[in-house]
Design goal:
Length: 404
């Protein structure tokens, strides 16, 4: 079975074609600058060099046409005909409270995604355009949607509700939704496989540490709490996002800095986090290299980040009443041994200790980086696209079984 995975943004379309039996990527690429000058498709063919196709791509529909043309191209294509592709899986950022599982697209599903655009205006609208485009170019194929929020739909109400008047939860759906769900789910499943144990029997904490970052408590395979909230702004200090702050800071700054309210969102999303604290960069590679040279603000920014991650891990160990394994993933989690070491420092009380030698793991490798007396600590490269492909396969199987 071959599944095409689509991740549509407002000006880009990423795709990967999976051969599901071996979970192998057959082709991947990205259409960039859709609707802008210099639009192009960069095709990555595993074990062959990249190839760049520059042509005018005015909209997502044209991008979808181009992807199919390239996938079936005689020279650089990966399939002989589109008949070989069984289904298309689309990534959707926000599934609200309605979508707790991947689903096969129909009119009602599209309407549901459209109604949630209030919560993720840029992402959900672009994803819908992607679905419409692939329905047109591959009319006979099943389209499935997998949501970033679904995995967190098992969080109990006491954890997802904010302490504001209940009517706003009822009226606007203001609650914690959580994000990076496809990533947390994927690494939790992999951790269980690596441990050779049933996920249903495990208490895990998964740390997705990238330019956006979140920590999730996973009990018996289900998310029971996560650090991101109503939007991806809550939780850990991130590259440029503030994470948790006292809400009064906003009204204070609006008054003191004469900051217009409409600027606040941009400020909190783009000018805070480690960029704001360091005043230098949001990139952890820059900060680590400056910290090594003794730059005090770079050191401080990294300390704030590490402290935040420790705070969430510790809280979630308490909530889970223990831990069977800790997992690091995403750009920082997969590559920065320094940050991983610092996060796990002085955690022996909680059963966690990093082995300095094993912690050298980088470059997309799966490693167990804990000492023999520690609970297992893993580095597991995330694979959200494979998770979408697996969820697509699952949604189709469930539907076929219900008709059987
Ligand atoms: P992501 O959003 O998952 O792509 O992660 C991006 C983040 O990972 C950026 O802040 C990068 O600085 C960070 N990152 C990537 N490689 C490394 C590395 N070798 N050491 C430290 N941080 C890294």
């Amino acid at each position: 079975m071959k599944i095409l995975v689509i991740n549509c943004g407002s000006s880009s379309l990423k795709y990967q074609l999976f051969e599901m039996h071996h979970r192998k990527v057959m082709a991947k690429g990205i259409v960039e600058r859709i609707g802008e000058r210099g639009s192009r498709l960069v095709v990555e063919i595993p074990s062959v060099s990249n190839s760049k196709i520059v042509e005018e791509i005015k909209n997502i529909k044209q991008a979808a046409n181009l992807v199919i043309r390239v996938l079936t191209d005689k020279e650089i294509g990966s399939v002989r005909s589109i008949k070989e592709i069984s289904a298309v899986g689309h990534r959707i950022v926000h599934g609200g409270s309605q979508f707790s599982h991947p689903v096969i697209v129909d009119t009602a599903v599209k309407r549901g995604i459209e109604l949630l655009a209030d919560l993720a205006p840029l992402h959900n609208v672009a994803a819908l355009e992607g679905i419409n485009a692939f329905e047109r170019v591959l009319p006979e194929k099943r389209q499935v949607v997998a949501f970033d929020t679904s995995f967190h739909q098992t969080i109990p109400k006491k954890a997802y509700l904010y302490s504001i008047p209940y009517r706003y939860y009822e009226r606007y759906g203001i609650r914690k939704y959580g994000f990076h769900g496809l990533s947390h789910k994927y690494v939790a499943q992999r951790a269980a496989e690596l441990l050779g144990r049933d996920l249903i029997k495990l208490k895990l904490i998964t740390c997705h540490l990238g330019s956006g970052a979140s920590v999730t408590a996973v009990d018996k395979g289900k998310s029971i709490d996560t650090s991101m909230g109503f939007t991806p702004l809550e939780g850990l200090t991130m590259g440029t996002r503030s994470g948790d702050i006292d809400p009064s800071i906003i009204s204070f700054l609006v008054e003191k800095e004469a900051m217009p309210l409409e600027r606040v969102k941009e400020f909190l999303n783009k000018e805070c986090g480690v960029l704001g604290v360091s005043g230098i960069s949001s990139d952890f590679r820059d900060l680590e290299s400056l910290a090594k040279k003794g730059d005090s603000r770079a050191i401080l920014a990294l300390d704030v980040f590490v402290y935040d991650v420790k705070r969430y891990i510790s809280a979630y160990i308490g909530i889970l009443n223990g831990i069977d394994a800790l997992v690091f993933t995403a750009g920082i989690g997969e590559n920065s041994s320094t940050i991983r070491q610092q996060i796990c420092e002085n955690m022996t009380y909680l059963g966690l200790e990093v082995d300095a030698k094993k912690n050298k793991c980088t470059n997309g490798n799966e490693c167990r980086i804990s000492t023999s007396r520690s609970k297992p600590i893993f580095v597991i490269p995330t694979n959200e696209e494979l998770m979408i492909a697996l969820e697509t396969q699952e949604a189709i199987r469930t539907m076929e079984e219900s008709f059987a």
